[in-house]
Amino acid sequence: MAMIRKTCVVIALLAAISVAGSGGLALGGEPAAAPSDPMVQMKALANQILAAANQPECKSASPACREKLRSLVEQHWDISEMARMALGVHWKGLDDNERQHFAKLFADLTEAIYLSRSNLSKAQGATKDVKVEFVREIRDGDDYSQVNTYVTLQGRDKPISVNYRLKRDGDVWKAYDVLVDGISIVSNYRNQFSRVINNKGYPELVRQLQQKIQQVNASEGT
Question: How large is the average pLDDT for residues 159-170?
Answer without folding.
Answer: 88
